[in-house]
Write a structure and sequence with these properties.
The protein is an all-alpha fold. The protein is built from four helices and no strands. The two termini are about 20 Å apart.
Length: about 90
């Protein structure tokens, strides 16, 4: 899977409508179209893909379905680039 390929982004988002329904998250019509299309063919489309994945992780943290940070002892530079809600 490469987030740089539209077809891979589209495949990665295939289950997202079900996730949204189960978690009471609503997408605008425009965003739903972008998700279904894999955010389009543009070279910078992976940025929108990354932003949405980050936002969904934050929603899961706020709703209590995911930890905001990894559990356990984190030492040194293990947190470099950490994003709220990212899976360990």
């Amino acid at each position: 899977m490469s987030k740089r390929r539209q077809s891979d982004r589209r495949a990665a988002m295939r289950g997202l409508p079900d996730w949204a329904r189960q978690n009471r998250v609503m997408f605008s019509t425009d965003l739903a179209k972008m998700i279904a299309d894999g955010f389009g063919p543009r070279g910078d489309a992976e940025d929108a893909f990354d932003a949405l994945i980050g936002l969904l992780g934050m929603i899961e943290v706020i709703d209590g379905r995911r930890l905001e940070r990894p559990s356990g002892q984190i030492v040194g530079e293990s947190l470099e680039g950490w994003i709220l809600g990212q899976a360990a």
